[in-house]
From TrEMBL:
Top-level taxon of the source organism: Bacteria
Species name: Diaphorobacter aerolatus
Family membership noted in the UniProt record: Belongs to the short-chain dehydrogenases/reductases (SDR) family.
Listed InterPro entries: KR_dom, NAD(P)-bd_dom_sf, Peroxisomal_Beta-Oxidation, Sc_DH/Rdtase_CS, SDR_fam
Database matches in PANTHER family: BLL2957 PROTEIN (PTHR45024:SF3), DEHYDROGENASES, SHORT CHAIN (PTHR45024)
Pfam annotation, one family: adh_short
Name the UniProt record assigns to this protein: SDR family NAD(P)-dependent oxidoreductase
Domain Ketoreductase: 9-205
Length: 305
């Protein structure tokens, strides 16, 4: 029998009871990974719990001949996130990969956003990814191997309306990934990000009150979650041993390498700058390189291929 890309590896996928997470869990198992399917079974705003979705995915994996276990702990608290990692070690004897996919949405225009709406989203996306990564890092360091895949978003990388909480968490997550990559590369630990375009329960909460919104959602519905899974499997495999600290986007059949902040243009004045000289000379020299105030949909403006 031909060796599969993930043979012998154990991977935790958070938020894998449905959508993108489910497809990643199924794809990882199909490539030989033993998978911890983590999902607390909440609604998209993080309320209510139901262990059914995770159990269903585990049943699917087992029916296809794979190995998986259910876990319903929350990523949003350090102790429960640690239990998710321990579930992998207790069940399968080790842990080789973590996919930080769990997420919730509480969309609101910034000037109306409540403290709770801010806290809840930051706790799941950013703190949750930190808690999971930190718990796994101890094992990865000891065995001198391991890989992280963090799900970021073009809402953070580029921008979007009504998502200050989500955008802040997702852009922060790319910096967390870079820091993990820098600090742990000496232990052969890798950390990369994927910004997915795909129809999911979270995207399903986008309003469809106007024809424009309905058309936008119709386009997103064409982008199925299973398009994301192949890149995640690859990044967690040994085939990606030289891929570290990168940010990718997947949009239907397209894969993009996203840019990271670097100097675009510089100005120098030997006698130094004053507020006046900046206004008169400095800013006019830089203005042609300014970035437009754009949303993700305006940058990715073509139909999915």
């Amino acid at each position: 029998m031909a060796q599969k890309m993930m043979d012998g590896k154990v991977v935790v996928v958070t938020g894998s009871g449905g959508g993108i997470g489910r497809d990643m869990a199924l794809a990882l198992a199909a490539e030989g990974a033993r998978v911890v399917v983590n999902d607390i079974g909440t609604s998209t705003n993080g309320e209510g719990t139901d262990d059914g979705p995770a159990h269903q995915v585990v049943a699917e994996i087992k029916a296809a001949g794979g190995e998986a276990v259910t876990n319903t702990d929350s990523v949003s608290e350090a102790a429960s996130a640690a239990r998710i990692v321990e579930c992998a070690v207790d069940s399968f004897g080790r842990i080789d990969g973590v996919v930080n996919n769990a997420g919730i949405l509480r969309d609101r225009f910034f000037h109306k956003m409540s403290l709770d709406e801010w806290d809840a989203v930051i706790k799941v996306h950013l703190y949750g990814s930190y808690y999971m990564s930190r718990a796994a890092a101890t094992h990865f360091k000891e065995q001198e191997s391991g890989a992280f895949v963090h799900m970021t978003s073009t809402s953070g990388l580029i921008g979007n309306f009504g998502q200050a909480n989500y955008s802040a968490a997702k852009l922060a997550l790319t910096a967390l990934s870079k820091s993990i990559a820098l600090d742990m590369q000496k232990f052969n630990v890798r950390s990369n990000c994927i910004a997915p375009f795909a129809w999911s329960r979270m995207i399903g909460s986008i309003p469809t009150d106007t024809p424009e919104q309905q058309a936008r959602v119709a386009k997103i519905q064409q982008m199925t979650p299973n398009k994301i899974a192949p890149l995640a499997v690859y990044l967690l495999s040994d085939a990606a041993s030289d891929v570290n600290a990168q940010v990718f986007a997947v949009r239907n059949n397209e894969i993009f390498l996203m840019s990271q902040p670097r100097p675009v243009r510089g100005i120098h004045r030997s006698e130094g700058w004053t507020p006046q000289s900046i206004a008169e000379h400095g800013m006019p020299a830089l203005r042609s390189s300014f970035f437009e105030l754009e949303r993700s949909g305006e940058v990715f403006s073509w139909d999915p291929i």
